Amino acid sequence: MTVNIEIKGNLAKLLATENLLIEHKNVETASFDVERRVLTLPQWKIDSEHVYDMLVAHEVGHALHTPNRNYKLEDKYKDIPHDYVNVVEDARIEKLMKQRFAGLNKDFYKGYEELHSINFFEVDDTEINDLKLIDRVNLYFKIGAYLCIDFNDEENQLITEITQANTFDEVLDLSLKLFKLGKDQKESIDTMLSAKLVSNEKGAINGMSVNMSLDNSQDDSNKTDDEENGQVQTPSNGAENGEDSNVSSKSQLETPVEDKSEDEIDDETLALQDKAGNHNNIETSDTQKSFDGNVQSKLNDDEARETNYVTVPELNLASVVVEFDLIRDKLNRHFITKNDISENHVDYFTKCVDAEIKRYVEHKNKSRKDVNNLVKEFEMKKSADSYSRQATSRTGMLDMNKLHTYKYNEDIFKKVTTIPEGKNHGLVFLLDWSGSMHYQLNDTVKQLFNLVWFCRKVSIPFEVYAFTNDSYRLKPNYKQDHYGYDNHKLHQTEKHGDLLVEGGFRMVQILTSSARSKELDEMMKLLWLQTHAISSHDFTPECDFRLSGTPLNEAIIASGQIIKRLIKREKLQKCHCVILTDGEGFHSSYVEYGSNWDNENHTRIVDKTKFCGRNVYPSETVIRKGARTFTGGHNESEFTCSLLNAVKSDLPNTQFLGIRILERDYYGFYMRYARKAFDSFEEMKKQNKKNGLIDFTTDTFDHWFCLSGNKLRASDELEVKEGAVKRDISTAFKRMNRGKKTNRVMVKQFINQIA
């Protein structure tokens, strides 16, 4: 079972007891940025929970307790090797973490046990007690429970002091002390080895002299007259049996006293040479080097995809939002004062505008009854809910009207009924202003107006925004580039890792409850004209407020700040955000540091003064909002959902409702959003056929409503041709009723959510 790195990221935050920023990246070792409070962990391929928790706890310990201090700049500590400080500091921070979280004792014990069992310290074939002091200290504090490590009295005293160390200054002092003792031991071993080698050389020379003198004297004494004359005598039987005293004495002299002592010296020398070899590089810890190397080679997942961490940025709302008054004035100049209409077309244009204004007034009057019915239904549901939540309790005071019944009635106390007050609600409506909304834009706006009139009736504060990425001309005095887009710097401060909101993006405030009734009615009339002109092509729409793409992700980013602004202004207890769109948002990008080319070293150097946009790949991306993280998903739709979850995390009292208008791709919508809500695609189609819409909940949108564009465009008026027969009239009547039912869906579903 593979360890979930995001869950372990949360573990790191819990251990740190602060909202650390956790990043899992393809790096060799963990690191901690003190200023940004970012803990970077390698992407480990670890199946063991104990090992993973131990490594995470270790790095959190450094983040919490190891200061960002360059001790090398201090004269007192400038000569201390890094390994010594690292080993002693490891012992300190692990002790502090285990003291703070008792449950980590088991993780450290089991974790190091598992790593030791696969020889991470590379000491399986090593005589532990021959290792240099820094290595024995390192092993003692990490795997000392599994090894028998000997320390002399002076070393034991140092071990005790390391165990008791609580501050980084103590760590530095003890590291210096440990280093000096290690150097003294190396010098002592080198001295002993040199003396032993000199002794062996002298012993070898003396041995050779003794042997040579013995051999010569014996040879001379054994020579006979016959030998001197060149005649050789054959040995007697006694000599063959070993009875010859001369031969026997020679054998005794040539055996072995000197040879045996020489062998013993060689063994001791070899042992000293091995020990001296372990102490060659006194400034490094070989065991820690082996451990770190094995972590990198065996635990780091080199095949893991590089993870990019992107942040939901804070936007400059003054740049992003086109305010209500500005858009109202622009539409008024086009449709009413006709400033940008040529003289040749003024008459025709005026005729069309007047006809549409008349239709708007008729729609408003006709909708009044429907809106009043919705208000009545809303008040009934709200009252019913309040009644269900009311509580009756005894006061403890006698009810004198019941006192006479005390013989047969125990309930003779006064009662009080508490009816909880309803919460103060608000509405933010985000309307897709993309080119694909062309056919149903006018019908959508009709339902939007019903919703607005309903909110006005029941005193619910609201704001309605159209999101677009082609409205740069709606705001004056902005410089445009070749493509007509503002620079994104207008919307955000360039910061590495922030999601990029391009300059052409706007949130156009088309309706707001803060406007006066007359201004609101005027704007609704102008909006009616604009949407009809776009949908019908009967006359010219206002060109600066034209349809564009679908910057859904950017709208979600901006919605967080817009909702907070409305909540603060209206002192709302709960807010509802409705997002209506007919498609997916396009891909996002994020801000990345640029680079300069180093000609001398042939490498690229990060330049924090240069920024560029880099495309987001959802499967390789983690979204960060504050200290919380959300996986990017596998495709663009999942990335949008994750982005919405990130924005929601900062809005605990906000409900998000999604309304999707579909023309054809029902199956695609099912696969992207509705698979968890329905057992099969056929089940979703059955609900749509029965109710006229698809209605379900998800982990992202608190509620989804999906309806076809054809049903939305269905007429809610009785349309009968002259001379129609009974069947035609019946069909038209049914069509009208279906249209009325569908055209009330957004308002009705909304009031069901807030009643």
Specify the number of helices: 24
Total beta-strand segments = 18
Helix % is 40-55%
* Mean pLDDT value: 79
Q: Distance between the terminal alpha carbons, to the nearest Å?
A: 46 Å
- Based on helices, strands and strand pairing, what is the structural class? alpha/beta
- Biggest sheet strand order reads 5-10-9-8-11-16-18-17
Radius of gyration: 44 Å
The shape is elongated
- Report on the biggest sheet: 8 strands, mixed
Q: Note the beta-strand portion.
A: 5-15%
Low-confidence stretches: 221-264, 480-486
Note down, in words, how this protein is organized.
With 755 residues, the protein is α/β, with parallel strands linked by helices. Among the domains are: 68 residues, no CATH class; 325 residues, no CATH class. Helix content is 50%, strand content 15%. The protein contains 24 helices and 18 strands. The strands form five sheets. It has an eight-stranded mixed sheet with strand order 5-10-9-8-11-16-18-17, sandwiched between helices. A hairpin with a 4-residue loop joins strand 2 and strand 3. Helix 16 runs antiparallel to helix 17. It is elongated and about 125 Å long.
